[in-house]
Specification:
Elements lengths: L1 E5 L14 E5 L4 H12 L6 E10 L8 E9 L24 E2 L5 E5 L14 E3 L2 H11 L3 E9 L5 H8 L4 H14 L1
Parallel strand pairs: 1-2, 1-3, 3-8, 4-6, 6-7
Antiparallel strand pairs: 3-7, 4-5, 4-8
Length: 184
Amino acid sequence: MIDLIVALEVELADITMPPGVRVTCCGVGKVNAALAAAHVLTRPDCRRVINYGTAGSLVTALAGQLVRVASISQRDMDARPLAPLGVTPFEDGEVTGEIILGGDGVRLSTGDNFVTSPPEVASDIVDMEAYALAKACHRAGIPFECYKFVTDLADENATANWRENVAKGAGLFCELMTGFDKQS
């Protein structure tokens, strides 16, 4: 079973996922994402988690694209001077900062703020949930993948552009998921 976690139902725009894909809507932000991940990861048939959602871009060429995420950082973890920006202090283990998913793709930074100007943590795109999901999956030993549809340019027009474009990536993502179904 593939568990698909999205923040909001509107991001899927009433698209029906192929068989073998179970959808969980987590709500906005890292806390809601972590709570949803904790629930999903307790399912005995959870074998793979995919996060799909929308993102703002800091790279103009990515606008309107469905992108695969290769690495995720936490842009709002700021415990300086105890740890560098983006790194959780006093944590042991291999995931304390950037999470590398590998392969080709973009760099994503996650934080509990809607980005309208470039954040301090360098990334190609920004969201509000993926880091929490990736870290929970990593700790549980469950494979995690992340795909984002870039709705806006993380600027002063981000809110209006997000509202206008939020549902536009659903069809592209559904096609991708149908391809996963055929590979399994």
